[in-house]
Design brief:
Chain A: It comes from Dimargaris verticillata. The complex is a heterodimer. Chain A starts with 5 loop residues before the first helix and ends with a helix. In chain A, the strands form four sheets. In chain A, strands 8-9-10-12-11 form a five-stranded mixed β-barrel. In chain A, strands 1-6-7-3 form a four-stranded mixed beta sheet, with no helix packed on it. In chain A, strands 14-17-16-15 form a four-stranded antiparallel beta sheet, covered by helices on one side. Chain A is α+β, with helices and mostly antiparallel strands. Chain A has helices spanning about 5-10, 125-130, 130-135, 210-215, 230-250, 255-265, 280-294; strands spanning about 25-30, 35, 40, 45-50, 50-55, 60-65, 65-70, 85-95, 95-100, 105-115, 140-150, 155-160, 165, 170-175, 185-190, 195-200, 205-210. By secondary structure, chain B is an alpha+beta fold. Helix content of chain B is about 30%, strand content about 30%. In chain B, helix 3 (about 150-165) packs parallel to helix 5 (about 250-290). The chains are: A alpha+beta, B alpha+beta. Chains A and B meet through strand 8, strand 14 and helix 5 of A and helix 1 of B.
Chain lengths: ~290, ~300
């Protein structure tokens, strides 16, 4: 049997000496030895010193057979094809937009990769190029899908679906990308009348609920920057959900539909603005953790 | 990392929220975010503090008391306070390279103005020998992270650092020829607090968005702000200094209302900050007697 990972020993004394349980998370800090066994290979986030594999970042140890990597808790987002991301337009350039997606470099959204109003499959003309700012302008938030990677590592996005496009009627919450897991759906309509888009890049859009039928009925509105009317109740709901996400993030709870729902239920007994204070956020996070384990 | 861009839809959402009194994080117009305060965070300073508002803006302040010569032409019987504020380039995207120079200057000026003249600190008591020597308090602040409302955070941290500062005792001896000589005594027990730190002001920044104003704005809210009014208020409710920044205008009637409200808000936060400061000092005192140095990480969210 392989020698146990050193870092496991510090945590739970009862499980010391067993690294067989892959579900056991091992948290390391930079410079912390992970294992001394020479048969392991060092992966991302680690380095070797005096034949010991040492963590280079603060994060969680992951082991795939002989390869040891440390996934950093706070790292920039590295995209994978098919990911749903929320991003902010930073620059309008030749036939493309530059989009901040919390990655190492800005992603690229080509003019040819968006749905133009009117004809779904029409050719992009020069006049479209001149009207680019009417579609997306600097500062606009978009939800998009990763289409491919460029050779330099930059991400290419597309918004060729009615699900994707410009965002309005809500507020952006930024969290570490490690807390959003890839799942079947990243668009959630919560029962409290709030829509949540979980960008895999850690940008989360919380907004008032809009029916898919309404969007399909008004395709010319997809590039609108004007908010619908939002009632005070709806506004409070949005604020509550946004604060629930922040509260969970403070305690490193994964953000998905279920955890948000549990946090929302747990939050109802508190005023919205108190949800992000250290006491109440830890109460909520603990409650959510308990429920998730059941 | 905060980017300095915001979409029109977000702006409209935030502005409407200000009008309705329901902000993006559920706060009302005058509500402050939760903050963390630690003192005695830098061992080689005379006093230090760190304040973190919400999960964002993070300010570290160190105070160093040094004896300096009084040059001819300066006030003969006064000490001095010298401030310097610097933004860490890693705090926000707009803090990169030389872009911060203007902001650093602005914050330094602001802090200098807040602490001199009506800043509470009794500068006369900082004099040692008239026309010769006085204490100079070097106040150095570092903005480590940024999510709006730097000015208020800066003054909370500075006031806490001043409360934490101990100035060594000096003994003045008269020499035979009528001259005087001073001796700085190293004994930490004999060191005294900064005279008048209790009267140092806190700042209440009100952000005017065109239809209303909010206190303790986040970075996003600041991007929707037309005009900012920074009001420094001390614990007696006196306005010590004020400053307006950014290009927008504030209607005259609202301006007076804002001043009045700033004083009211200050009257609420100063006692809570002082209470927090007292607890924090007791905590550090325990730790020091137990042989531990206070570290900020012991009570952060992480």
């Amino acid at each position: 049997m392989a020698e146990p990972l050193l870092a496991t020993r510090r945590g739970d004394s009862s499980s010391a000496g067993h690294d067989a349980d892959p579900a056991k998370t091992v948290v390391t800090t930079p410079g912390e030895p992970i294992t001394t066994t020479a048969s392991f290979m060092r992966g991302h986030g680690t380095f070797v010193e005096d034949e010991t594999v040492v963590s280079a970042v603060a994060g969680v140890v992951e082991r795939i057979n002989k390869l040891i990597t440390v996934k950093a808790l706070k790292a920039r987002y590295s995209g994978e094809i098919g990911d749903v991301v929320v991003g902010r337009i930073t620059e309008v350039a030749q036939k493309r937009w530059k989009v901040d997606v919390n990655s190492r470099q800005d992603a690229v959204l080509m003019l040819s990769a968006i749905n133009l109003p009117g004809g779904i499959q029409r050719r992009k003309s020069e006049s479209d190029e001149l009207r680019m700012r009417t579609f997306f302008t600097e500062g606009d938030l978009v939800v998009a899908e990763i289409q491919s990677h460029y050779s330099d590592g930059a991400i290419a996005l597309h918004t060729r679906s009615l699900k994707y496009g410009k965002l309005r009627n809500g507020t952006l919450v930024k969290i570490p990308p490690a807390l959003v897991q890839r799942s079947r759906s990243h668009f959630h309509a919560l029962p409290c009348g709030v829509d949540v888009i979980l960008g895999v890049n850690g940008y989360i859009w919380v907004s008032k609920h809009v029916d898919m039928e309404t969007i399909e009925a008004n395709p010319e509105e997809i590039y609108s920057s004007k908010n619908d009317r939002i009632s005070p109740d709806e506004r409070q709901m949005i604020a509550r959900v946004a604060n629930c996400i922040v509260a969970l993030t403070r305690h490193f709870v994964h953000i998905h539909e279920t955890s948000i729902l549990y946090a929302y239920e747990a939050s109802l007994q508190h005023p919205i603005k108190d949800l992000v204070t250290s006491d109440i956020s830890s109460d909520i996070a603990l409650e959510v953790r308990d429920k998730l384990q059941v | 990392m905060a980017s300095a861009l915001i979409s029109t839809a977000e702006q409209a959402y935030i502005r409407q929220g200000v009008v309705e009194g329901i902000r993006g994080d559920g706060r009302g117009r005058a509500d402050y975010r939760d903050y963390l305060l630690s003192v005695n965070v830098i061992s080689h300073s005379s006093g230090s503090a760190r304040c973190r508002v919400g999960f964002g803006t993070d300010v570290l302040v160190g105070v160093k008391a040094e004896v300096a010569m009084i040059e001819p032409g300066e006030a003969p019987n006064r000490g001095r306070v010298q401030c310097h504020v610097e933004c860490s380039p890693s705090a926000a995207r707009q803090f990169q390279a030389r872009l911060t120079d203007e902001l650093n200057n602005d914050l330094t000026q602001f802090l200098t103005r807040a602490l001199n003249d009506f800043g509470g600190i009794d500068l006369d008591k900082l004099a040692i020998i008239p026309n010769q020597a006085c204490w100079v308090l070097y106040i150095d602040a570092m903005i480590l992270d940024f999510d709006g409302n730097v000015h208020d955070t800066l003054l909370i941290a500075t006031r806490a650092a001043l409360a934490n500062t101990r100035i060594p005792k000096v003994e003045v001896q008269a020499l035979e020829d009528g001259q005087q000589e001073y001796d700085v005594i190293d004994d930490p027990e004999a060191a005294t607090p900064v005279p008048g730190w209790e009267d140092a002001p806190l700042c209440v920044t009100l952000n005017w968005t065109g239809d209303g104003y909010v206190a303790d704005a986040t970075h996003q809210e600041e991007l929707c702000t037309d005009a900012k009014l920074m009001v420094c208020v001390n614990r007696h409710g006196d306005i010590c200094s004020m400053q307006k920044s950014t290009l927008g205008t504030i209607p005259q009637a609202t301006f007076l209302e804002m001043l009045e409200n700033a004083t009211k808000i200050a009257a609420q936060i100063i006692p809570t900050v002082d209470q927090r400061l007292k607890e924090e000092h007791e905590r550090t005192a325990q730790q020091v007697s137990g042989g531990h140095k206070s570290t900020f990480m012991t009570n952060t969210f992480l």
